[in-house]
Design a protein that fits this description.
Elements lengths: L7 H10 L8 H18 L5 E3 L11 H17 L11 H7 L13 E3 H7 L21 E3 L7 E3 L9 E4 L6 H12 L6 E6 L5 H6 L3 E4 L19 H15 L6 H15 L8 H7 L3 H7 L9 H4 L11 E5 L1 H4 L5 H13 L7 E5 L3 H4 L2 H13 L5 E7 L2 H5 L4 H7 L2 E4 L8 H9 L4 H9 L5 E5 L4 E5 L4 H7 L4 H11 L5 H8 L3 H8 L70
Parallel strand pairs: 5-10, 5-11, 6-8, 6-9, 7-8, 9-10
Antiparallel strand pairs: 1-2, 3-4, 11-12, 12-13
Length: about 575
């Protein structure tokens, strides 16, 4: 470029007239200066130079769609100030040049320095979720789909805290997510899952894992016996608090005299046989007619005794436990005592193993001030026992109205928000903003698709994801309709394992066959060994008729049977040795 600043004629005129030409090629001079600056930067090791290949490959099964995609790419790039070239003769070479390790095929290789290369390289990436659950020393809970090409690893634990808040309106896909969380959590060694459900949405998933499903209600077959273990160390003190809670709910003022009367009655009841340690037995032993009258609603004489005054509790504590609470919620007075007793029983199972405790429709738990205070205490203590609590509710306003809202927000570092088409309304928007969401996040919740999209919000990052369930997962996680519950009851009555029977009823026979395993080979009926064939009878010995009889006094000739042996000389079998020839004497 430096040589092109002046033409040949201008150089000759300068030589002939010994005068510098005033007119030069400004473009060539500028490019020469650029080249000189580039050499100076290269010499100072400020930058490096190299060839770059920028190719965008557009593909589709239909030619018309390829054309549409190509026009869209050109419109975006041209709008950013770039120049696009449609490859024709160089199409094959351009495609080969786009493959890693083949930089020589494409002839379009402009020279750029590393600063321009840095403009093309991404300096940030989409958050893909944690690669490892460090608390459990295991992979993350599950892999989910996204709208981009990067999958998202969903995990509930942030450090050693796995408490999670799931918020979304009715019909947004909350029950499916909770059932899938329960199924996926069983991947960890020794894990146990406890689900407080409402509407039996997760019953099929729990039974498919070999768990136990119980129903809390006055019409069910379950009967609790809260005082059955008061003879064990520490249990009588827990029973005292539980009984005083019943008395408080009935309007009794708890005084030292009341506690003393209840304590004395509990001590007397502890020495009775286990079958007699009931609320009816306590009401008989208590030395106060007013206290006995206050306990009567919870005995067999009252409306709630069917559930709380049992004499033989059969509550199976398995690794997977599904507890249906919808019938219980119809009786508000029963919710605190029943759930308090169940949580006390469950605390004995929190022994350090990975445990997932799901509380569906958590607003019912937060309505009771007594129970809400205990939840706040459990959130602090259960973390140390490796228990992750999942709160699911329909609205953030339910949590905001709770007296323990600050404790919930501090103790739940993971939040999963479901789509809400009313998120942009002023009242809903204000609630979301008070929970820390910005305008872009609220807009995402408003335009996302219900029953498909979920938004994870953690201190490590935020991501919109999809579950991407197949027919097998949908059959287990989406069994929430009345027809599905009827099918579950019918499959439970069959003699085969529930999972296989349920999947076969859902037209997933291939999955049922995998669960049942290959059929055992049927042994062929054994045949008795064939009897040996009878041997043919030996032919009868020939009868030799004696034509004449010899005189026993007659002498037998030698060589005949009964005679003397014959001389070898006269035997027909005797061979005489050859005679030796005499040699003549000389």
């Amino acid at each position: 470029w430096f040589a092109k600043r002046k033409s040949v004629g201008a150089i000759l005129r300068e030589v002939m007239f010994n005068r510098e030409s005033a007119l030069v090629d400004t473009d060539a001079e500028n490019k020469a200066q650029d080249a000189d600056e580039a050499l100076q930067e290269l010499g100072a090791d400020d930058v490096a130079f190299g060839y770059v290949t920028t190719t965008i490959v557009v593909s589709d099964r239909e030619a018309a769609r390829v054309e549409e995609k190509q026009l869209a790419v050109e419109r975006i790039l041209n709008g950013r100030g770039f120049t696009t070239i449609r490859e024709t003769l160089n199409a094959v070479e351009a495609w080969l040049g786009s493959l890693p390790g083949n930089p020589y095929a494409n002839v379009r290789q402009p020279i750029v320095h590393t600063l321009n290369l840095a403009h093309l390289m991404p300096v940030s990436a989409v958050w893909a979720g944690p690669a490892m659950n460090r608390q459990l020393a295991a992979p993350p809970l599950m892999m989910t789909q996204t709208r981009g090409a990067t999958p998202f690893r969903l995990d509930l634990h942030v450090g050693d805290v796995g408490h999670t808040m799931v918020v979304g309106p009715t019909g947004a896909g909350k029950s499916v997510l909770l059932a899938l969380l329960a199924l996926q959590f069983r991947r960890y060694i020794g894990a146990q899952v406890i689900i407080f459900d409402r509407g039996r949405s997760a019953r099929a998933a729990a039974l498919a894992m070999g768990g136990t499903a119980i129903e809390l209600g006055l019409e069910g077959t379950l009967s609790l016996q809260p005082l059955a273990r008061i003879d064990e160390p520490g249990e009588i003190a827990v029973a005292l608090d539980w009984v005083t809670g019943l008395l408080t709910a009935e309007g009794v003022t708890i005084t030292p005299d009341v506690k003393d009367a209840v304590w004395t009655a509990l001590q007397s009841l502890a020495s009775a046989p286990p079958i007699e340690r009931t609320l009816t037995g306590l009401a008989v032993l208590i030395q106060s007619s007013a206290l006995a009258q206050a306990l009567s609603p919870y005995t067999l004489e009252g409306p709630y005794g069917r559930l709380l005054d049992g004499c033989d509790e059969r509550l199976a504590m398995t690794d997977v436990l599904h507890i249906e609470t919808e019938p219980l919620m119809a009786h508000k007075a029963l919710v605190p005592p029943v759930l308090t007793y169940l949580f006390h029983r469950l605390q004995a199972r929190f022994d350090g193993r990975p445990t997932l405790l799901i509380l569906d429709e958590a607003w019912t738990f937060l309505d009771s001030p007594v129970f809400a205070a205990r939840i706040r205490e459990w959130l602090k203590t259960l973390r140390k026992k490796n228990v992750a609590v999942v709160f699911a509710t329909q609205s953030l306003a339910d949590i905001e109205r709770s007296t323990i809202a600050p404790a919930l927000l501090e103790s739940c570092p993971t939040r999963i928000l479901l789509p809400n088409d009313r998120a942009l309304e002023p009242q809903s928007r204000a609630v979301y903003e008070r929970f820390g969401l910005n305008a872009r996040q609220i807009e995402l919740l408003a335009v996302s698709a219900p029953k498909r999209d979920y938004y994870a919000q953690t201190a490590r990052g935020n991501r919109l994801f999809e579950l991407g369930l197949g027919p097998l997962a949908l059959a287990l996680c989406g069994a929430s309709t009345p027809e599905d519950q009827t099918l579950v009851d019918r499959c439970l009555a069959e003699p085969v394992p529930f999972a296989a029977a349920f999947l076969r009823a859902k037209d997933l026979a291939w999955a049922a066959d995998l669960i049942e395993g290959p059929p055992e080979p049927q042994a062929e009926p054994t045949k008795p060994p064939p009897l040996p064939e009878p041997r043919p009878a030996a032919p009868p010995e020939p009868v030799v008729e004696v034509l004449f009889e010899t005189d026993p006094t007659q002498v037998v000739l030698p060589g005949l049977p009964g005679g003397s042996p014959i001389s070898k000389r006269f035997s027909p079998y005797h061979v005489s040795p050859p005679k030796k020839k005499r040699r003549p004497r000389t």
